[in-house]
Known about the structure:
By secondary structure, the chain is of the alpha+beta class. The protein has eleven helices and six strands. Strands 1-2-6-3 form a four-stranded antiparallel sheet, sandwiched between helices. It has a two-stranded antiparallel sheet with strand order 4-5.
Amino acid sequence: VLIEELHSMNPENIVKILKQHLVPAGLDLVAPFDVSQYNEVVHQFHKLPTLGIDHPLGVVIGSTKNIWVPFCNYIQTHQEDLTLQDPLDSYTQKMVLLALNDPLVFPFGGTTTVRYDWDRPNSGRFCHMQTAAHFAGIAHYDKATMWCVSPTYGVWCSFRAVAVFRLSIPSEAIPPIIPPLLTLDEQKNIVELTKRAILEEWSNVDTLISIRDQCQTGKEWRYSQDQLDYHYIRKYKEILERVLSKQSTNKSE
């Protein structure tokens, strides 16, 4: 039966199976793109492998504020992860690999081609996540501000991983590109605040959050205070222990 199912696999099925694994884990943005389109516009050192296939299927995996509760629930039962360099990165990697190891997905090679948003530009494994998300039709990559803006989530989404598969993506399955979404005023404000953040050496959390707050689209998807603290203050263990303490207090009441 597995052999028959493997023969019938196509990009739509791959994405569907990945979503079944990833969405409950809070990785709720899963979308296909044409790797060839991406490779045409990025720096040569940032190109993705094509696995000898014309127009190979790439899949962008990202998250919104919906990742926070599943992640905190996971940490509740895996408190040994509190001491890791970045528990959320570790959680993301575990969930992505779990999905890519699905018996119907694994033969198409995603586990060997996966790139993460923490892979550095000089690592040889770097993927420009914003460009991939742009071609996946999740968000518009605004080069003036270097932000991706989703028509639903605004700037309150993160692109965590990209995997390439040994399947061609048919032209009809390639998502349409999202048009620009930031207004000229929003663009101007973000550029000015980014200049301020650079002068502050990216150390002023209020400035960094204010940059995101300029975009009016998707404001209802703004992260909770705990999630903002996690991403911007970055005292991961301290913040997660505070969250776990609140959870246990709420349960005992």
